[in-house]
Request: fold
Amino acid sequence: MMNNYGIAVIGMGATGSVIAAALLKQDPDVFCVDPRPGLEKALKTEGLTISGAIDTHVHVKHFYPRIRDLKDHHPNLIFISTKTYHLSRVLEEIKDIFTAGTKIISTHNGLGPEDLIAETFGQNSSFRMSLNFGVSIREPNHIEMAFFNRPNHIGSLVRENQDIGKQVAGWFSRSDLDTAFVDDIKLYVWKKMIYKCTLASICAVTDRTIKEVMDLPPTREIALGCFNEAIAVARAMGYDLGANFLDEALIYLEKVGAHKDSMCYDIANKLPTEIDFLGGKVVEYGQQKGVPTPYFTTMTNLVKAMEDRYLKK
Reply:
C-alpha cells in the first residue's frame, strides 16, 4: 500500500492501462477494475505491457470485474479512466464503496468530469489529471503509446489537497510518466481540450488522422475555426490563454503526427462517443457566456447524427 493509500483504477482501456501500469510499478497491490470478459486472465497470466513512447511491463495481482467487488478492500484513492459517458453510472456505483476522506481522480478527456465528481462527493474529494499522451489498444493487455508530450498535470479543486496531489505526481514521475502538480488544473484542462480534443470531431467525421486534418486545406480551415471558438469560450470562462496560444497549439499538434483520435474508433466500432464532454461542452459554455460557436456546433451535431444512425437501433 503506497503511503497508506489503497489505490484502485476503474477502467482498463488504453488510458486506464497506462495509469495502472505506472502505479503498479510503485505498488504491486493496486486494484484494477474492468468488466470486459477475458481481460482478467490476460492480465494475470501475461501481465500488462506499455510500448512506444514508454516501455513498461508489470504484473497484475488484483483484478475485479465490478466496482462493488472492492468494498471489502476500502480503496481511498480511486482513479477513473472510463469513457466520460460512463462517468455518472460509475460514480453511482462508487457510492457503495466510498468512505470519508476518499479521493477520486478523473483522467478523462474533455471539460467538466471533475465538477461531476465534486457534485457527487464534494470538492474535497475531486482531483483531475490532464494527460498529454496518445494511446491505442494493440491487444487487451498491450497498449501502444504513440506520443507523450511531457508532462501530464494533476490538480485538485481545493488547496488543502496540495500535498496529496504532489505525492501522486511523484509516483507517476518515478514510473517515467512525468506528471506535475498544478494549482489551477482547469487551466491545463482547457489547454489540453484545445490542443488535443478540438480536432476529435473533425477526425471522427472525416475518418482522418490529426496530421491529415491539419494538412488538408478544407479540414484545416474548420480546425482553425474551432480553435478560435474554443479560445474565445475559454477566455469568457476566465482563462485567457494568451495571444500566442494558437501558435503553441499548432506546434503541439506537429508533435502528435499521424495519430487518430479515439473518437474515430468509437464511430468505427459503433460506440457512444465522448462528444458531450468535448465539443458539446464548448457549445454549452459558449451559450452560457454569449460566445458564438458555429464551427463547434456544426461538428458536434454531425457527430451526434452519426451516433444516432447506430445507437438508436
Remarks:
- The CA atoms of residues 137 and 143 lie 5 Å apart.
